[in-house]
TrEMBL record:
EC number: 3.1.3.11
GO biological process, one term: fructose 1,6-bisphosphate metabolic process
Gene (UniProt): fbp
Sorted UniProt keywords: Carbohydrate metabolism, Cytoplasm, Hydrolase, Magnesium, Metal-binding
Family in the record: Belongs to the FBPase class 1 family.
Residues at which substrate binds: D118, G119, S120, S121, N210, Y243, K273
Signal peptide feature range: none
EC top class, as a word: hydrolase
Sequence positions that bind Mg(2+) 1: E92, D115, L117
Location(s), subcellular: Cytoplasm
Protein name: Fructose-1,6-bisphosphatase class 1
A Pfam family: FBPase
Gene3D superfamilies: 3.40.190.80, Fructose-1,6-Bisphosphatase, subunit A, domain 1
Fructose-1-6-bisphosphatase class I N-terminal domain location: 5-196
Amino acid sequence: MNKVITLGQFIIEKQADFPYAKGELSRLLRDIGIAAKIVNREVNKAGLMDILGNAGSTNIQGESQQKLDVYADQQFISALKCGGECCIVASEENEDIIRLDTDVSKNAKYIVAIDPLDGSSNIDVNVPVGTIFSIYRRKTTAGQASLKDVMQKGTEQVAAGYIIYGSSTMLVYTTGKGVNGFTLDPSIGEFCLSHPDMQIPERGVIYSINEGNYVHFPQGVKDYIKYCQVEDPKTNRPYASRYIGSMVADIHRNLIKGGIFIYPVTSSAPNGKLRLVYECNPMAFLIEQAGGRATNGKDRILNLTVTELHQRSPIFIGSKEMVKKAESFNLLNEILQ
Ligand code: P6P
């Protein structure tokens, strides 16, 4: 039996990769792991509890908040507050940034941007959902950290990752030195290293896009979809169409099998649907670290300027050669050209 390496052991061992590390980032990642286990417990019994159905409130996006959305948001914020390594949380579920202004946290040097429960509309139908997180070092040195500490470019991330609550629960993350995956072993309550040094295949045969929006896509996106569907044994086409409707699950599958995930601009969503700060940037950092590619159809996601907290962006992310091929089509509408 192989030696079991827990997330905690791995984080400590990898801390040595950072000569000036004093353990804060390690503790922050530990705090996220703890909250993930608590959220996982509730997600796994969602059908049994009076936790299904809308909480009645709506989030900043005007989307009805499932009770589990609210619960997950509260659990991650609480874990980060107690852990003392994070001074500000930017959450999809909250209009404004949340200052963790306890005596310990208010001077902490890290910022966390989080989508606490992505794909939550799938909870009631038992489809995998996920948490996406992104970690920055604050730039403000004197006084309180502020919104501008959150609105940094994706290239400034020090760590990013996701938890997928699926057939098993996995935590996958990067600190800029590769990507590693941990599977939760419920019998010991630990995330254990199960997918060391994850690399996304350079090519794949899966394309993932909501084709129900086809008529609203730019012509270049329509042309790329047709390219995926044309018979050409030399390039293993037609590709397979797979769309779960949960970004974490769709990207996790492609990370393992290869493929491209696309959420383009549409006539009703001229800047795309997915959020730059807590969905596109963390996923782009992670997929690039796994050898993949992530653009908005023209520019690298990680280089995009952040102009507002809940800013949206189109995203083409996955196997490097597939994303490059897609970019040879005119993927953006006139708004972004
Ligand atoms: P659509 C879930 O609501 C989400 O934010 C992502 O997880 C997912 O990829 C996307 O929206 C699905 O959007 O418009 O295809 O239902």
